[in-house]
Every structure is written in C-alpha cells, then in structure tokens.
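Action item from last week, closing it out:
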Amino acid sequence: MKQYHSSDIRNFAIVGHGASGKTSLAEAMLKLGGEINRLGTIESGTTISDYHSGEKERQISIHATPLHMEWMEKKFNLIDAPGYSDFIGESLGSLSVVDMAVLTIHAVNGVEVGTETMWNHASKLCIPKVLVINGMDREHASFEKILAEAKTQFGNNVFPMQIPINPGPGYNQNIDVLRSKLITYQADSSGRMEESELPEDLKNRVNELHEELIEYVAESDDSLLETFFEKGGLTEEEMRGGIHAAVQNQTLIPLFCSSAQTNVGVPRIMDFLSKYGSSPTDRGTVNVVDSSGKDDTISINDSETVAQVFKTISEAHVGDLSFFRVYSGRVSAGSDLNNTSRGNNERIGQLSVLNGKERTSVQQLNAGDMGAVVKLKNTHTSDTLCSPSKKVSLPKMVYPNPNIHSAVELHSKGDEEKLAMGLAALHEEDPTFVYRVDSEVRQTIISGQGELHLKISIERLERRFSIQLDL
C-alpha cells in the first residue's frame, strides 16, 4: 500500500449530536474516495462504519469506527464517532488522537447539547474545528437560523464557506464563497458538480463575505492585506497559506452545508480538508513523560518510534485488535516495541488499515498515520509503545466517571468464569464501562454512562459469551 508523508495525512474525527448525520457524511466521503461503489444507508443497515449488530438493530452508532481513503493525494484517516452521550467514551478516545474535529449540526434542530459537548472537548484538546450543517435537503432546513445560532454559541469567527441556494427537498446548489462561484450538484448522489457564475442578485452579498474572509485570513498574514489592496481581491491560491494558518489558530471557524445522503456539498468539504485541514506536522511536538518521570516532548520528525493505542476491540476469529496512532518514527510488522505503560515488550504482528470490518494489510505505518495490530500480549487502551531506546509515556486518555449503576447476576450457575472474562473484555474495549464485585451484598455491580449504555453492554455480554443475565 502507498506510504504517506506526515504532511500528506489528515486525521479527523466526525463528531456531534446524535442523528446529526455523522455516519452518512463518513459514507459519502468513502464513496467519493472510491472506497465503496454505492452509498449505504442507516435505515437499511448497510453503512460501512455501523457494522455491529447492535448498531444495525438500533440504527445508531455505538462504536467509534476508524476509516481511511485518499482525496487529492492526501490520506484521510477519519473516525466516525457516536453522538449519544451514553457512548461519549468512544468520542473522547477519538478526539484525543486526531488533529481536527469535524462537527456536524442537524439542519433542522440546529446546535444541540451534543454539539456543544464535542466542541468543548475539542477545545480542551486544542484541536481546530470545522462545522458542517448537514441534511440541508430536509423540510424546514434553516441555514440562516443555524448560522446565527453557531455564531452566538461558538463566536463571531464562525464563517460560512458555503451558502445553500435551495435548502429543503431538491437541494442541490451552493454558493462557494471562497471561489465566488455557484456550484450545482448532479442529482445521482455521485457528488459530480459544475461551477458557474454567480446570479446577479447574490453578487453583493458574496463580495461582502469574500472581503470578510480576507480580513480573517489577513490576521494571520499581513502581506495578504497589502496584496488585496493592490489588486482589489485575492485568489484562492493567494489565500491558501493564510487560510491554513487561520484555521490552525481558529481565528477562522469554517462552516459548510451539505446533504450527505445525496452527496451535495461533500466534495468541497473534502477539498477544504485536503488543502487547509490540519496535518500531523501542524502539531509538530507532543508532550510526554520520560523514563525518569520528567516532562519532555517528542517531535513528528524524531526517528525513534512512539505510538499510542486509542481503542481495543475483540473480533470473532481474530482476537484482540489494537488501534493506534504513530506520533514519531514508524511501526513495522515484525518489529519489537516496549510498552512503557506496563513495562513489557511487544512483537508487532500483522498491521492493517480498516474501513469498518474490511481490513487491508500494510507492512509499515509512518509518523502521523493510524492503523491496527492484532494479538498484542499485554497492551491496553491508552498504553504507549516505543522503540527500546526511547522510553517515554504519552498522557493517558481521560474518561468520564459512571453515571448509573446496576446489579447483575447469572441466570444459570456455572458460567462465572465466562462472566468474569466478558466483563473484563468489555471494560478493555470501553473504559467508561466499569464493574466490581460487592463483597458485602455478594453482587456484581456494573456501571456506565446511562441506561442505554448498560443495556447494550449486557446484550454484548450475552451474545459474545453465550451467557444469560438477570438484572
């Protein structure tokens, strides 16, 4: 498989409130990138990222699913994260290893609790954010209302990179503010589009927005302001470096609009992420703790390997699968790394990149990239893997405490060992699910983020470990 330089990688998580179109947006991107031939739907259970049985049954995302594709010669590592608060651990784990957050906003409901929650967590992690109002083809979709909401909630530097011309059923046209063009999309979900000149009645508004965009960009590059006054305008190419810098320092919060289910607006979102989105080189250095306990940093350009596991799942017929990000050096199949979190060595076996349950084997992953490895002996979520000559530890991921507790017991005696194995496996996959045995009341207590979280956890226990539990 093609190897990518760190500057050509885009790691981002698609986050937001539940049912705001995250999975559909990820599906549309995979279609445009050529990873799938047709768009799956949540209703039919055919999307690439929602492939677990519980997700298909409930038509919601439960797991954070790593995906990959190429666009404009850049590798996109995107994570489709759940929106419901019961599964917030999956979203937080995803945000902790990416370089940018793409926040979806429901085109009718607007900014919701989950939107604000993900915005706040991304801000705490100091990663840039891009907003997408998704579902502009819905009845009662209101771009202007939601744009005003977003500015009120997230700041006046929220800027519309696109303006929908015909929101609602039949939506297929956007004004591209950056290019000052009208873009019309074909109605076949292919994402194919045509550019044309602006309608006369919209030229004044777009010109005003274009000048406003230049002002945002010029805050990061004074020379652009001089060029603007000399020429009376700036081309997209002339603004490129300034836009990138403005996005990185968040003096500009780009806002897009789309209908992921019909693939309208999505290609230009992907163009923007490719040209102006964060790469691992933008972060440059990452804080670590060295073997003596002192604070230190590592650089993306360091030759020694430093990687972190951000998610662990157990797959039938495969076993444990550890998802990781490489922060420096490279991870190669057959190499030996030290787990500084647990003090043991690990031999790296088969490496792969994933799109849902589909795996593609790779021999090596370079700094900034993401992938998965099977059957590590004693490595868990948040653990750091390093070259033996570079023993450092990355900060552990922080997860919320449980909100709800319930006692469970086996329906039939004799399955105690299965229950113990199952509870340990679930906690390994989902650190926000915890359990303990209360010696006083002689009960097993499970804890999580909400009723749905516990219910789905019990279903997974019963299905995977062939046991029956009573609440």
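Closing note: The chain has a mean pLDDT of 94.
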